[in-house]
Amino acid sequence: MPEVDDIDHQVLRLLREDGRRTFSEMAERIGLSVAAVKRRVDRLKELGVITGFAVQIDYAKLGWGIEAFTELRYPGTTPVAEIIRTATDVPEVQAVFTIAGDPDALIHVRVRDLGHLQQVIDRLRRAGNVTGTKTLLVLGSWTRDVVN
Fold first, then answer.
1. Please, what is the Cα angle at 107 between 52 and 111, to 5 degrees?
2. What count of other Cβ atoms lies within 10 Å of the Cβ of residue 98?
3. At what angle do helices 6-17 and 34-46 cross, to 10 degrees?
4. Using CA atoms, how far apart are residues 72 and 121, in angstroms rounded to an integer?
5. Which pTM was predicted?
6. Quick one: angle between helices 6-17 and 23-30, nearest 10?
7. CA nearest to 90, candidates 134, 130, 123
8. Which of 12, 111, 128, 131 is the 20 to 30 Å CA partner of 103?
């Protein structure tokens, strides 16, 4: 595991809050020079701790305001790669989580409306060796910032 100290955690927290934050702003908030902050960010990227920078999108404003999680079940002999392939072929799928136990996978989907959700679920049910599904609608969400 890479060596990450309290200053690194502060840098990560600031970047998590706003990935476009400048080195200058971070330096001022942390109490380091701009060059020192840049070196830390570069080092965290080289270590693989920072894997990229992403934009956060309000999908509801784009007409894709409904989120759901669909549990997928497969026969016990289904390879994990096939489970992942089943879901990644559906453009509305945002993430695939293969899990131990029942169900075999948890799929995060984003759709326009409930009719669209039904179409996506039907497509997943017809794909591969899916033996069963269960879908849960997301009413709201909150994400913990795991960086201390």
1. 90
2. 15
3. 90
4. 10
5. 0.79
6. 130
7. 123
8. 111
